[in-house]
Amino acid sequence: MVSKLLASFVSLVALFQGASAAPSDTRVLCPDGRNFASNAACCALFPLRDDLQKNLFDGGRCNEEAHESLRLTFHDAIAISPALEAQGKFGGGGADGSIAIFSHIETNFHPNIGLDDIVEKQRPFLQRHNVGVADFIQFAGALGASNCPGAPQLAAFVGRKDATRPAPDGLVPEPFHTPDQIFDRLADASNGEFDPILTVWLLTAHTVAAADDVDPTVPGSPFDSTPGVFDSQFFVETQLRGTLFPGDGPNKGEVLSPLRGEMRLQSDFAIARDSRTACEWQSFVNNQTKVHDMFQFVFHDLSILGQNIDDLVDCTEVIPVPKPVIGRTHFPAGMSARDIEQACQETPFPTLPTDAGPKTAVPPVRD
Ligand code: HEM
Ligand SMILES: *[C@@H]1O[C@H](CO)[C@@H](O)[C@H](O)[C@H]1NC(C)=O
Protein backbone atom coordinates (compact mmCIF):
# COMPACT_ATOMS: atom_id res chain seq x y z
CA MET A 1 0.00 0.00 0.00
CA VAL A 2 2.66 2.47 1.11
CA SER A 3 4.82 1.60 -1.87
CA LYS A 4 1.86 1.97 -4.24
CA LEU A 5 1.17 5.42 -2.81
CA LEU A 6 4.82 6.28 -3.15
CA ALA A 7 4.87 5.09 -6.74
CA SER A 8 1.90 7.23 -7.72
CA PHE A 9 3.45 10.20 -5.88
CA VAL A 10 6.68 9.76 -7.80
CA SER A 11 4.83 9.64 -11.11
CA LEU A 12 2.85 12.76 -10.14
CA VAL A 13 6.10 14.58 -9.41
CA ALA A 14 7.41 13.49 -12.79
CA LEU A 15 4.28 14.88 -14.46
CA PHE A 16 4.66 18.22 -12.68
CA GLN A 17 8.27 18.44 -13.79
CA GLY A 18 7.05 18.18 -17.34
CA ALA A 19 8.64 14.78 -17.83
CA SER A 20 6.83 12.35 -20.08
CA ALA A 21 6.93 9.61 -17.48
CA ALA A 22 3.85 7.40 -17.48
CA PRO A 23 3.07 5.40 -14.33
CA SER A 24 4.52 2.28 -15.96
CA ASP A 25 7.89 4.03 -16.09
CA THR A 26 7.99 3.87 -12.32
CA ARG A 27 8.72 0.16 -12.62
CA VAL A 28 12.06 -0.96 -11.29
CA LEU A 29 14.73 -2.74 -13.29
CA CYS A 30 15.38 -6.09 -11.63
CA PRO A 31 18.93 -7.15 -10.68
CA ASP A 32 18.91 -9.52 -13.68
CA GLY A 33 19.17 -6.40 -15.86
CA ARG A 34 16.40 -7.72 -18.15
CA ASN A 35 13.03 -7.62 -16.40
CA PHE A 36 11.06 -4.68 -15.09
CA ALA A 37 8.73 -5.08 -12.12
CA SER A 38 6.13 -2.87 -10.50
CA ASN A 39 7.74 -3.81 -7.19
CA ALA A 40 11.27 -5.07 -6.50
CA ALA A 41 9.73 -7.88 -4.42
CA CYS A 42 8.51 -9.47 -7.67
CA CYS A 43 11.98 -9.73 -9.22
CA ALA A 44 12.76 -13.20 -7.85
CA LEU A 45 9.74 -14.58 -9.68
CA PHE A 46 11.10 -13.97 -13.20
CA PRO A 47 13.96 -16.49 -13.06
CA LEU A 48 11.69 -18.88 -11.13
CA ARG A 49 9.06 -18.56 -13.85
CA ASP A 50 11.53 -19.28 -16.61
CA ASP A 51 13.00 -22.25 -14.76
CA LEU A 52 9.57 -23.79 -14.04
CA GLN A 53 8.36 -23.27 -17.59
CA LYS A 54 11.41 -24.92 -19.04
CA ASN A 55 12.06 -27.68 -16.56
CA LEU A 56 8.76 -28.55 -14.85
CA PHE A 57 6.13 -27.63 -17.43
CA ASP A 58 7.92 -29.04 -20.49
CA GLY A 59 8.53 -25.69 -22.16
CA GLY A 60 5.21 -24.13 -21.15
CA ARG A 61 2.67 -26.94 -21.55
CA CYS A 62 -0.58 -27.67 -19.74
CA ASN A 63 0.96 -30.99 -18.70
CA GLU A 64 0.38 -33.29 -15.77
CA GLU A 65 2.73 -31.24 -13.59
CA ALA A 66 0.73 -28.12 -14.43
CA HIS A 67 -2.47 -29.91 -13.34
CA GLU A 68 -0.87 -31.22 -10.16
CA SER A 69 0.60 -27.81 -9.30
CA LEU A 70 -2.88 -26.30 -9.57
CA ARG A 71 -4.34 -29.04 -7.35
CA LEU A 72 -1.61 -28.41 -4.79
CA THR A 73 -2.67 -24.75 -4.39
CA PHE A 74 -6.09 -25.93 -3.22
CA HIS A 75 -4.82 -28.58 -0.83
CA ASP A 76 -2.44 -26.14 0.85
CA ALA A 77 -4.89 -23.23 1.02
CA ILE A 78 -8.07 -24.99 2.10
CA ALA A 79 -6.47 -26.42 5.25
CA ILE A 80 -7.66 -23.69 7.59
CA SER A 81 -10.59 -23.88 9.96
CA PRO A 82 -11.97 -21.07 12.08
CA ALA A 83 -14.45 -23.66 13.41
CA LEU A 84 -11.58 -25.71 14.90
CA GLU A 85 -10.00 -22.55 16.31
CA ALA A 86 -13.31 -21.71 18.00
CA GLN A 87 -13.03 -25.06 19.81
CA GLY A 88 -9.59 -24.06 21.05
CA LYS A 89 -7.78 -26.30 18.55
CA PHE A 90 -5.20 -25.38 15.92
CA GLY A 91 -7.06 -24.97 12.62
CA GLY A 92 -4.18 -24.80 10.13
CA GLY A 93 -2.76 -21.76 8.39
CA GLY A 94 -4.35 -21.86 4.93
CA ALA A 95 -2.05 -20.89 2.06
CA ASP A 96 1.02 -21.17 4.26
CA GLY A 97 3.13 -23.79 2.47
CA SER A 98 2.53 -26.36 5.19
CA ILE A 99 1.79 -29.10 2.67
CA ALA A 100 5.38 -28.86 1.38
CA ILE A 101 7.14 -27.81 4.61
CA PHE A 102 5.54 -30.71 6.50
CA SER A 103 5.05 -32.93 3.48
CA HIS A 104 6.08 -36.04 5.46
CA ILE A 105 2.93 -35.43 7.55
CA GLU A 106 0.41 -33.78 5.24
CA THR A 107 0.94 -35.82 2.08
CA ASN A 108 0.00 -38.85 4.17
CA PHE A 109 -3.45 -37.42 4.82
CA HIS A 110 -5.91 -39.43 2.73
CA PRO A 111 -7.26 -36.59 0.50
CA ASN A 112 -3.68 -35.55 -0.33
CA ILE A 113 -2.88 -38.91 -1.91
CA GLY A 114 -0.51 -38.49 -4.85
CA LEU A 115 0.61 -34.98 -3.95
CA ASP A 116 3.95 -36.19 -2.58
CA ASP A 117 4.90 -36.56 -6.23
CA ILE A 118 4.46 -32.89 -7.22
CA VAL A 119 5.85 -31.63 -3.89
CA GLU A 120 9.09 -33.53 -4.56
CA LYS A 121 9.20 -32.42 -8.20
CA GLN A 122 8.82 -28.79 -7.09
CA ARG A 123 11.36 -28.98 -4.25
CA PRO A 124 14.55 -28.46 -6.32
CA PHE A 125 13.04 -25.29 -7.82
CA LEU A 126 12.18 -24.06 -4.33
CA GLN A 127 15.76 -24.71 -3.28
CA ARG A 128 17.37 -22.82 -6.14
CA HIS A 129 15.18 -19.71 -5.95
CA ASN A 130 14.75 -17.15 -3.24
CA VAL A 131 10.99 -17.44 -2.68
CA GLY A 132 8.91 -18.42 0.35
CA VAL A 133 7.26 -21.84 0.31
CA ALA A 134 3.67 -20.58 0.55
CA ASP A 135 4.28 -18.04 -2.23
CA PHE A 136 6.00 -20.69 -4.32
CA ILE A 137 3.08 -23.15 -4.21
CA GLN A 138 0.51 -20.58 -5.29
CA PHE A 139 2.83 -19.16 -7.94
CA ALA A 140 3.59 -22.56 -9.46
CA GLY A 141 -0.13 -23.36 -9.66
CA ALA A 142 -0.98 -20.03 -11.28
CA LEU A 143 1.88 -20.44 -13.74
CA GLY A 144 0.97 -24.04 -14.58
CA ALA A 145 -2.62 -23.01 -15.26
CA SER A 146 -1.42 -20.21 -17.53
CA ASN A 147 -0.18 -22.90 -19.93
CA CYS A 148 -3.74 -24.15 -20.45
CA PRO A 149 -5.45 -22.26 -23.31
CA GLY A 150 -8.58 -20.50 -22.07
CA ALA A 151 -7.32 -20.08 -18.49
CA PRO A 152 -7.40 -16.71 -16.78
CA GLN A 153 -4.22 -14.96 -15.72
CA LEU A 154 -4.30 -16.06 -12.07
CA ALA A 155 -3.18 -13.91 -9.17
CA ALA A 156 0.38 -14.16 -7.91
CA PHE A 157 1.33 -12.59 -4.59
CA VAL A 158 4.50 -12.63 -2.55
CA GLY A 159 4.99 -11.99 1.15
CA ARG A 160 2.96 -14.80 2.71
CA LYS A 161 4.02 -16.10 6.12
CA ASP A 162 5.26 -19.68 5.95
CA ALA A 163 3.85 -22.32 8.26
CA THR A 164 5.57 -23.25 11.49
CA ARG A 165 3.36 -26.30 12.06
CA PRO A 166 1.45 -28.77 9.90
CA ALA A 167 -2.26 -28.39 9.23
CA PRO A 168 -4.50 -30.87 11.01
CA ASP A 169 -5.97 -33.78 9.06
CA GLY A 170 -9.60 -33.74 7.96
CA LEU A 171 -9.80 -30.32 6.28
CA VAL A 172 -9.44 -31.25 2.59
CA PRO A 173 -12.62 -32.34 0.78
CA GLU A 174 -12.85 -35.91 -0.54
CA PRO A 175 -14.75 -37.05 -3.64
CA PHE A 176 -16.97 -39.27 -1.47
CA HIS A 177 -18.10 -36.34 0.70
CA THR A 178 -21.67 -35.13 0.27
CA PRO A 179 -22.40 -31.66 -1.13
CA ASP A 180 -23.36 -30.59 2.41
CA GLN A 181 -20.01 -31.69 3.79
CA ILE A 182 -18.14 -29.91 0.98
CA PHE A 183 -20.21 -26.72 1.18
CA ASP A 184 -19.76 -26.58 4.97
CA ARG A 185 -16.00 -27.14 4.75
CA LEU A 186 -15.44 -24.47 2.09
CA ALA A 187 -17.62 -21.98 3.95
CA ASP A 188 -15.69 -22.63 7.17
CA ALA A 189 -12.29 -22.21 5.48
CA SER A 190 -13.30 -18.88 3.95
CA ASN A 191 -15.34 -17.34 6.78
CA GLY A 192 -18.49 -17.81 4.73
CA GLU A 193 -17.21 -16.42 1.43
CA PHE A 194 -17.12 -19.73 -0.45
CA ASP A 195 -20.84 -20.52 -0.56
CA PRO A 196 -22.30 -23.26 -2.79
CA ILE A 197 -22.20 -20.93 -5.82
CA LEU A 198 -18.53 -20.04 -5.35
CA THR A 199 -17.82 -23.72 -4.75
CA VAL A 200 -19.01 -24.33 -8.32
CA TRP A 201 -16.67 -21.57 -9.51
CA LEU A 202 -13.76 -23.22 -7.71
CA LEU A 203 -14.55 -26.58 -9.29
CA THR A 204 -13.91 -25.07 -12.72
CA ALA A 205 -10.33 -26.22 -12.03
CA HIS A 206 -11.49 -29.75 -12.81
CA THR A 207 -11.58 -28.77 -16.49
CA VAL A 208 -7.78 -29.30 -16.51
CA ALA A 209 -7.66 -32.40 -14.38
CA ALA A 210 -7.23 -36.12 -14.19
CA ALA A 211 -7.14 -38.68 -11.40
CA ASP A 212 -4.24 -41.01 -10.66
CA ASP A 213 -5.40 -42.52 -7.41
CA VAL A 214 -9.20 -42.76 -7.44
CA ASP A 215 -8.73 -45.85 -9.59
CA PRO A 216 -5.02 -46.68 -9.57
CA THR A 217 -5.51 -49.26 -12.35
CA VAL A 218 -6.14 -46.39 -14.82
CA PRO A 219 -3.89 -43.49 -13.78
CA GLY A 220 -4.32 -40.21 -15.64
CA SER A 221 -8.06 -40.64 -16.28
CA PRO A 222 -9.30 -37.14 -17.17
CA PHE A 223 -12.44 -35.46 -15.82
CA ASP A 224 -13.38 -34.19 -19.30
CA SER A 225 -12.33 -34.88 -22.88
CA THR A 226 -10.15 -31.74 -23.06
CA PRO A 227 -7.87 -31.83 -19.98
CA GLY A 228 -5.32 -29.61 -21.75
CA VAL A 229 -7.78 -26.76 -22.30
CA PHE A 230 -9.39 -24.52 -19.67
CA ASP A 231 -12.83 -24.65 -21.27
CA SER A 232 -16.41 -25.47 -20.27
CA GLN A 233 -16.42 -29.09 -21.49
CA PHE A 234 -16.18 -30.28 -17.88
CA PHE A 235 -19.58 -28.71 -17.17
CA VAL A 236 -21.12 -30.36 -20.25
CA GLU A 237 -19.69 -33.80 -19.67
CA THR A 238 -20.51 -34.00 -15.94
CA GLN A 239 -24.17 -33.55 -16.94
CA LEU A 240 -24.20 -36.52 -19.35
CA ARG A 241 -25.71 -39.82 -18.21
CA GLY A 242 -23.05 -42.14 -16.80
CA THR A 243 -22.75 -45.59 -18.35
CA LEU A 244 -19.28 -47.00 -17.61
CA PHE A 245 -16.11 -46.82 -15.53
CA PRO A 246 -12.66 -46.09 -16.98
CA GLY A 247 -11.17 -49.04 -15.08
CA ASP A 248 -12.39 -51.60 -12.56
CA GLY A 249 -14.80 -49.21 -10.81
CA PRO A 250 -16.74 -48.32 -8.87
CA ASN A 251 -14.01 -47.18 -6.51
CA LYS A 252 -14.66 -45.02 -3.47
CA GLY A 253 -15.56 -41.50 -4.64
CA GLU A 254 -16.17 -42.62 -8.23
CA VAL A 255 -19.45 -42.87 -10.16
CA LEU A 256 -20.34 -43.94 -13.71
CA SER A 257 -18.91 -41.69 -16.45
CA PRO A 258 -20.30 -41.07 -19.94
CA LEU A 259 -17.10 -41.62 -21.98
CA ARG A 260 -14.62 -44.45 -22.22
CA GLY A 261 -11.49 -43.44 -20.30
CA GLU A 262 -13.16 -40.58 -18.43
CA MET A 263 -13.24 -40.43 -14.62
CA ARG A 264 -16.23 -38.92 -12.86
CA LEU A 265 -15.99 -37.96 -9.20
CA GLN A 266 -19.03 -38.62 -7.06
CA SER A 267 -18.72 -35.07 -5.62
CA ASP A 268 -18.72 -33.41 -9.07
CA PHE A 269 -21.70 -35.59 -10.07
CA ALA A 270 -23.64 -34.66 -6.95
CA ILE A 271 -22.91 -30.91 -7.02
CA ALA A 272 -23.85 -30.80 -10.72
CA ARG A 273 -27.28 -32.22 -9.74
CA ASP A 274 -27.86 -30.58 -6.35
CA SER A 275 -30.83 -28.17 -6.42
CA ARG A 276 -28.66 -25.44 -4.84
CA THR A 277 -26.01 -25.58 -7.55
CA ALA A 278 -27.40 -27.30 -10.68
CA CYS A 279 -28.35 -24.06 -12.47
CA GLU A 280 -25.03 -22.42 -11.61
CA TRP A 281 -23.22 -25.51 -12.91
CA GLN A 282 -25.17 -25.40 -16.17
CA SER A 283 -24.59 -21.65 -16.55
CA PHE A 284 -20.90 -22.33 -17.28
CA VAL A 285 -21.75 -24.43 -20.34
CA ASN A 286 -20.71 -22.51 -23.46
CA ASN A 287 -19.81 -19.40 -21.49
CA GLN A 288 -16.03 -19.09 -21.69
CA THR A 289 -16.12 -15.56 -20.29
CA LYS A 290 -17.71 -16.92 -17.17
CA VAL A 291 -15.25 -19.83 -16.92
CA HIS A 292 -12.40 -17.35 -17.21
CA ASP A 293 -13.68 -14.57 -14.96
CA MET A 294 -15.15 -16.60 -12.12
CA PHE A 295 -12.12 -18.83 -11.68
CA GLN A 296 -9.85 -15.79 -11.75
CA PHE A 297 -11.95 -14.25 -8.98
CA VAL A 298 -12.09 -17.28 -6.67
CA PHE A 299 -8.46 -18.31 -7.15
CA HIS A 300 -7.37 -14.86 -5.97
CA ASP A 301 -9.19 -15.37 -2.68
CA LEU A 302 -8.29 -19.06 -2.36
CA SER A 303 -4.61 -18.29 -2.83
CA ILE A 304 -4.44 -15.95 0.16
CA LEU A 305 -6.57 -17.85 2.71
CA GLY A 306 -5.09 -17.31 6.16
CA GLN A 307 -2.90 -14.42 4.98
CA ASN A 308 -3.40 -10.67 5.27
CA ILE A 309 -3.62 -9.12 1.82
CA ASP A 310 -2.23 -5.83 3.13
CA ASP A 311 1.08 -7.57 3.83
CA LEU A 312 1.35 -8.97 0.29
CA VAL A 313 2.75 -7.60 -2.96
CA ASP A 314 0.79 -8.25 -6.15
CA CYS A 315 3.11 -9.79 -8.77
CA THR A 316 0.43 -11.08 -11.14
CA GLU A 317 2.27 -9.32 -13.98
CA VAL A 318 4.86 -12.13 -13.86
CA ILE A 319 2.21 -14.71 -14.90
CA PRO A 320 1.87 -14.86 -18.70
CA VAL A 321 -1.53 -14.03 -20.15
CA PRO A 322 -2.81 -17.44 -21.30
CA LYS A 323 -3.68 -18.19 -24.92
CA PRO A 324 -7.37 -18.07 -25.87
CA VAL A 325 -9.50 -21.19 -25.61
CA ILE A 326 -9.16 -23.84 -28.33
CA GLY A 327 -12.31 -25.33 -29.86
CA ARG A 328 -15.97 -24.69 -29.24
CA THR A 329 -18.26 -26.16 -26.63
CA HIS A 330 -19.77 -29.39 -27.96
CA PHE A 331 -21.31 -32.74 -27.19
CA PRO A 332 -18.67 -35.44 -27.56
CA ALA A 333 -19.04 -37.54 -30.71
CA GLY A 334 -21.92 -39.98 -30.36
CA MET A 335 -23.71 -37.86 -27.73
CA SER A 336 -26.49 -35.30 -27.88
CA ALA A 337 -29.00 -33.42 -25.76
CA ARG A 338 -30.76 -36.80 -25.24
CA ASP A 339 -27.84 -37.91 -23.06
CA ILE A 340 -28.15 -34.94 -20.71
CA GLU A 341 -29.54 -35.55 -17.23
CA GLN A 342 -31.26 -32.20 -16.86
CA ALA A 343 -30.84 -30.98 -13.30
CA CYS A 344 -31.50 -27.22 -13.56
CA GLN A 345 -35.26 -26.82 -13.45
CA GLU A 346 -35.32 -23.16 -14.52
CA THR A 347 -33.36 -23.09 -17.76
CA PRO A 348 -33.15 -25.63 -20.58
CA PHE A 349 -29.74 -27.05 -21.43
CA PRO A 350 -27.94 -24.92 -24.06
CA THR A 351 -28.05 -26.15 -27.66
CA LEU A 352 -24.64 -27.47 -28.70
CA PRO A 353 -23.15 -29.06 -31.80
CA THR A 354 -22.03 -32.70 -31.67
CA ASP A 355 -18.46 -33.59 -32.64
CA ALA A 356 -18.23 -35.68 -35.79
CA GLY A 357 -16.78 -39.18 -35.79
CA PRO A 358 -17.01 -42.35 -33.73
CA LYS A 359 -17.98 -42.21 -30.08
CA THR A 360 -15.38 -40.21 -28.14
CA ALA A 361 -12.95 -42.15 -25.96
CA VAL A 362 -10.62 -40.16 -23.76
CA PRO A 363 -6.92 -41.05 -23.58
CA PRO A 364 -5.12 -40.87 -20.24
CA VAL A 365 -3.03 -37.83 -19.31
CA ARG A 366 0.61 -38.88 -19.11
CA ASP A 367 3.84 -36.97 -18.42
C1 HEM B 1 -14.19 -29.09 -3.42
C2 HEM B 1 -14.08 -30.35 -3.63
C3 HEM B 1 -13.00 -31.06 -4.39
C4 HEM B 1 -12.82 -32.41 -4.38
C5 HEM B 1 -13.64 -33.42 -3.60
C6 HEM B 1 -11.71 -32.70 -5.25
C7 HEM B 1 -11.21 -33.96 -5.48
C8 HEM B 1 -10.26 -34.29 -6.42
C9 HEM B 1 -9.78 -35.62 -6.70
C10 HEM B 1 -10.24 -36.88 -5.99
C11 HEM B 1 -8.85 -35.53 -7.67
C12 HEM B 1 -8.06 -36.67 -8.30
C13 HEM B 1 -6.76 -36.88 -7.55
C14 HEM B 1 -6.04 -38.11 -8.06
O1 HEM B 1 -6.54 -39.22 -7.87
O2 HEM B 1 -4.97 -37.97 -8.71
C15 HEM B 1 -8.74 -34.13 -8.03
C16 HEM B 1 -7.90 -33.63 -8.98
C17 HEM B 1 -7.71 -32.30 -9.21
N1 HEM B 1 -8.26 -31.24 -8.50
FE1 HEM B 1 -9.79 -31.38 -7.21
N2 HEM B 1 -11.24 -31.53 -5.79
C18 HEM B 1 -11.98 -30.50 -5.27
C19 HEM B 1 -11.77 -29.15 -5.53
C20 HEM B 1 -10.74 -28.65 -6.28
C21 HEM B 1 -10.41 -27.24 -6.38
C22 HEM B 1 -11.14 -26.11 -5.68
C23 HEM B 1 -9.35 -27.13 -7.19
C24 HEM B 1 -8.70 -25.82 -7.54
C25 HEM B 1 -7.47 -25.54 -7.55
C26 HEM B 1 -9.01 -28.48 -7.64
C27 HEM B 1 -8.03 -28.81 -8.55
C28 HEM B 1 -7.76 -30.08 -9.02
C29 HEM B 1 -6.88 -30.38 -10.12
C30 HEM B 1 -6.17 -29.36 -11.01
C31 HEM B 1 -6.83 -31.78 -10.23
C32 HEM B 1 -6.04 -32.60 -11.27
C33 HEM B 1 -4.72 -33.08 -10.76
C34 HEM B 1 -4.01 -33.92 -11.82
O3 HEM B 1 -4.47 -33.99 -12.95
O4 HEM B 1 -2.97 -34.50 -11.48
N3 HEM B 1 -9.87 -29.36 -7.05
N4 HEM B 1 -9.61 -33.39 -7.24
C1 LIG C 1 -21.99 -15.51 -19.33
O1 LIG C 1 -21.79 -15.29 -17.96
C2 LIG C 1 -21.76 -13.91 -17.60
C3 LIG C 1 -21.31 -13.83 -16.16
O2 LIG C 1 -22.17 -14.49 -15.30
C4 LIG C 1 -23.13 -13.30 -17.86
O3 LIG C 1 -23.13 -11.95 -17.51
C5 LIG C 1 -23.46 -13.47 -19.32
O4 LIG C 1 -24.78 -13.04 -19.57
C6 LIG C 1 -23.34 -14.93 -19.74
N1 LIG C 1 -23.46 -15.02 -21.19
C7 LIG C 1 -24.33 -15.79 -21.78
C8 LIG C 1 -24.30 -15.79 -23.27
O5 LIG C 1 -25.12 -16.48 -21.16
From TrEMBL:
GO BP annotations of the record are:
cellular response to oxidative stress; hydrogen peroxide catabolic process; lignin catabolic process; response to reactive oxygen species
- Active site residues of this protein: 75
Signal sequence segment: 1-21
Which E.C. number(s) belong to this protein? Answer: 1.11.1.-
Annotated region (Disordered), positions in chain: 347-367
Residues of the Plant heme peroxidase family profile domain: 49-287
Q: Protein name, please?
A: Peroxidase
**Source organism of this protein record:** Trametes coccinea (strain BRFM310) (Pycnoporus coccineus)
Cofactor note (record): Binds 2 calcium ions per subunit. Binds 1 heme b (iron(II)-protoporphyrin IX) group per subunit.
Residues annotated as site: Transition state stabilizer? 71
Pfam family of this protein, just one?
Answer: peroxidase
- Entry keyword annotation includes Signal: yes
Q: Which family does it belong to?
A: Belongs to the peroxidase family. Ligninase subfamily.
Tell me its cofactors: Ca(2+); heme b
Q: Which residues bind Ca(2+) 2?
A: 207, 224, 226, 231
**A GO MF label:** peroxidase activity
Binding residue positions for Ca(2+) 1: 76, 94, 96, 98
What does the entry list as the binding residues for heme b?
206
Q: Domain named Fungal ligninase C-terminal: which ranges?
A: 292-365
Gene3D superfamilies reported in the protein's UniProt record: 1.10.520.10, Peroxidase, domain 2 (1.10.420.10)
Question: Which cysteine pairs are joined by S-S bonds?
Answer: 30-43, 42-315, 62-148, 279-344
Question: Domain of life here?
Answer: Eukaryota
Under the heading CDD domains, the entry gives: ligninase
Q: Give the matching SUPFAM superfamilies.
A: Heme-dependent peroxidases
